[in-house]
Fold this protein.
Amino acid sequence: MTRLLEIENVSITFGGLKAIDDLNFHVDEGEIVSVIGPNGAGKTTFFNTITGLVTPQIGDIKFEGQSLIGLDPNEITARGLARTFQNVRLFPQMTILENVMVAQHCRTNQRVIGPLFRTAAWKKEEAEIRERAEKVLGFFGHRLVGYRLEQPAFVLSYANRRRLEIARAMATQPKLLLLDEPVAGMNPKESEELTHLIGRLRSEWGFSIVMIEHDMGVVRDVSDRVVVLDHGVTIAQGSYEEVSTNPTVIEAYLGKAAAESEGGGSLDSAAHSGEGAH
Amino acid sequence: MAATTSAKPTGPTPVKNKKKSVFQTNNWVDIFLTVVRLVAIGIIGLGFTLFVIQQATGEGLSSEALRNLIVAGIAQGAMYGLIALGYSMVYGVLGFINFAHGEVFMSGAIAGWIVSDTLFKNGLWESNFIVSLLIVLTVSVFVSTAATILMERIAYRPLRESPRLIPLITSIGVSFFMQNAVLGLIGPSSKNFPALPEWLSKKRGFLGIELEGTKLLVLFVAFVSMAGLWFFVERTKTGKAMRAVAEDKEIAALMGINVDRIIITTFAVGGAMAGVAGVLWGLLFRGVSFLTGFLPGIKAFTAAVIGGVGNLGGSMAGGLILGVAESVGPLLILEPLGIPGVSQLKDVVAFSVLVLVLLFKPSGLFGERLSAEDRA
Amino acid sequence: MTATAANTSDAMASAPGVRSATDVDWRRSANIGGILGITAVFIGLVGMAVGLDKRMLIDPVLSLGYLFVLAIPLIGGWIAAREITLEGMTAPIKGARDIVAGAVAGLVGGAVVAMFLVMLNAWDLQELLPNWSDALLDMYTFGQGVGVGIVLVLVVGLVLGAIGGAVHVIPAKPRRLLSIAVQWVISFAVLEAVIDDLLGGFGLQAVADVIYARRGGLLIIPGLIIGAIAAFVAHRFEGKGAELKTQYMELEPERKNQVSKQGLIIMVVLGIVLPIFLGKIVNELLSNVGLFILLALGLNVVIGRAGILDIGYVAFFAVGSYMMAFLTSPLAPWRESDGILSAVFGWLPVLNWFVALPIVVLTAAIVGVLIGTPVIRMRGDYLAIVTLGFGEIIRLLFLSDWLAPTFGGAQGIRSIPGVNLGFAEINGTDPRAVFYLVAIFVAIAIYVSSQLETSRLGRAWMAIREDESVAEAMGINTVTTKLFAFVVGAILASFSGAIFAAKVGSVFPNSFELLVSIIILVVVIVGGMGNIPGVMMGAVVLIGVLGGPSQPGLLQEFSEFKLLIYGALLVFMMLKKPEGLIPNAARNRELHQEEALQDAWLKGDKPGTTKDEVDDAGPAPSAADIDGSLGLGGATS
């Protein structure tokens, strides 16, 4: 398997506070990796670093062998990385269709001349953008298509917003998809369905996926590999079973005393208590 | 693969990421900006060099004239600084530019004219200047403070949670409205403050420099006001509350601080300083009109940016720097370049300073002090 | 509102008990009354009341000045009696209580004015406040002297306040008819110049003479007739408009397109034919409006679409005008001076307007890039002030002695020829021709902005306006995209500038002050940011009625006060209706469509069908979705 993303010795400090400390991480092509960890473990900073919102002071990030350091977020997206946000950030006043169409910006190139003179190339590109947008939205069943296409995004329910955000990321035609808590705030039925869809994202669309998630059920069901972050440091990685029984991980979630007293406490319950503090 | 607990780095030696220099970037915007910066530095450097050469050959300004310009610049800069405090304080607490602050200053100046004119007609201005000045200052400060409190109450408070540009546009509207309201109230002509009594306005020696009394008075009042403000912000309970609100409104509210009251106080204190500046402006330049607030307002904002918004000492320093720059700049840099009619370009210099400061150091020379949410 | 009133009239019959007339929030009414009084005093002291008194609206009873002053207690009474109806609660029953609330506000307002009148009578402050005059005293006492006047003021305040409050009590239907009648009468009075002109153009001058008084103003009896006709027409065709709209909405998309096209053709034909019948004044007015539509459409791209608050926008208008003057005027100063310019470009002949236009546009685009690049990365509020700075820098440079050999300094550039078409020349002496020229460019501007809006670039602008950092994370290069908006705006403004130069025949630095930028901003905001028809309507109403920075509007008496009104309007819009007065048609359609679909779904919701089944069954939204959409839709809009 070829390495898609490689993070080497990355450190990030915010005014003396180490958010990420000497992190090493990699994703292979076709892999689904989950990143878990208690709140404040630096998971979202980790995503922000990969997508160029935060520049690491030390270390290197390589995507398909080329360094991403110093690139603007839009250039990184153009390289083939796309993300969703923990606190869903859509373009609320734009229609659902527009939300997905605009995400294809870096894959298209018509500017002023095309639309003004209605050139054939422009018409073709617009048609392609729209077709691709509908295809991406169609991935989520009937929820985001049909009459919904022309509705502003703010009318959507919470779960549908999450779906639309994933659709928007898909529309940038990435190789690697970064999902920040994709099922947060969904009911069990919805999250089960989304778990299924995440699997299909790999099998049908060929995306590699890095996912931050609190819901251990989802993590267990989809991930090839789980990486546990705490205080900006990788404390464990491996398969779900390996990680969930790792004493260091349980300690990180529950605290040292609890880990010792409970002995064989499981990560599932630990993660839930972690979420409680959320 | 076992669940490894990686503690220490295993990869190659860490690479330290430096900010990319301009020469490595292929971003044309960066290149363009660098060119602009270089050209600006070049022009300033060239003008200044020529000036030095002219001075050396004895063709330039007399040192007397230069000194007068600097003193005039400092006096004017002190007023910019006083107005800038209002911008800075409001920006520090609410994170928005009160574009209408120049008009608050103008309202103080106009109120000062109305009172001083009345006092002049009564004869008190001549007979007891100190008392008249205190009356004028009190009324002006009252009017400016009232204007700014009304402004906050009517126009800005309902918009506190709206997107940033909405209150900014509102303040542009408030500024426009106030200008034209004053135009309607007192008419378009420029109104003159009564002349200062002879004993005050005559020139006198001060620290070895011959100074006009008026300028001394301006500097003295500005200094006293500034000291008062410093004491208020740094030493009183309200001042501390103000700083707390500037840092984080919600937490401050949780700590039992009445945020609304503190915000009003902030506006009021800024307004009071603008009122003082208005009277000083009238004493120094005598003519005031409904347009008096516009240019000083923008320049004071520039001063606030130079000093770093939210930074009170910086604002005052920024005012002095800008005052001197616009007073000396045209003669120091533009005149040696052979540009005619440089005194007309005074305002161009001030605006250029604004653009250049934001190009070189957007956080001001002395650093910004903003609340957490604005830094983000 | 209408629904509330309808409920009221129904409820009256079986009313569980009408509230007593004294169930009034006295303090609130009195506060509103105080504000009313202060407003009236303010309007008097800035000179509006007396200044506008010169214009007769309805001869001989109502002048514009009195309309303004008397509208204050009316509106105040209406506000004082207004009650907030909470969603899901029964609306409070309207009755005598509302009239009392309005009357109290009116009375308090009257008292404040009365006190002012006493002071006005006692002291003489005219030296300080020019409008502290006998004329004002005379007007506010209705010419009856202070003693009687004060009583009159109190009575008028009381009565008008009560009437304002009573508006809530009148049932919906008569209220609607009355308001339409009043609107029509006032429109006829305000639009006197246009209607007179139009009737004259169609050879119906006699009709105009019957309707309007010789010295201006609508006559009473024709006024009443107009009101009656308007009310009758409104009564007769009630609901027809909405019916037509639903009919149109239900058409097949293809047919819909056809209908819109027909509508467009009718508009174009009207635009071509109507000016022929209009006189000079109205054509002049229309061409001014057109110039501002161009500017407003340009600023709309910058601020409405891309969300960049550019308040130095006038700079591009100035560059367009000056560049056109520079190239086409035979007396341009640079031709006569012996500087570098005349040495290098001396061979350049005096250009024709159309030849010069591409150069002008190119220059504006370059200036757009030069100004845009340094500012585009700044925070929104810094950007606003810096663009203002650039606007002022450009004006001051045009004004300076330094560049006077090139641009003429304060004297500006004169004798700019009109637009030479070969067979005719369009210049300021023929406003009709100017109007046609402007109309063509407005059409181009509409095409350009609507075409760009729906393209890749337009979507990117919108995304940046909504959330810049997310837009960047979604692969949009925010710097170049914003710069494109800046440049498109600059080009549209330069069109306007180029026509302006040819129309006026000379350019001066004073035509390009900051206030031009602010007026364009007001036009865009009143019309509705990002909304092309709205922005155009904004320009028509504001520039047409109030006038531009130096161009008179229909109400020429306003010229002294229009800037005051613009400022107040800007604040009012931001506080009450930041989305603009004219709602965005497209957005409205979407929301209505959604309601219709939900209704359909609710009807089809058979008992026994669980939510989940419905959710999975097809395109119908799940119950959760509907909850979300209602709640959030309400919160966001």
Q: What stands out?
A: Chain A has two domains: 3-90+174-243, 92-155. Chain A touches chain B at residues 8-9, 11, 22, 24, 55-60, 69-70, 233-238, 242-243, 246, 248 (CB under 8 Å). The mean pLDDT of chain A is 86. The first strand of chain A starts at residue 3 and ends at 14.
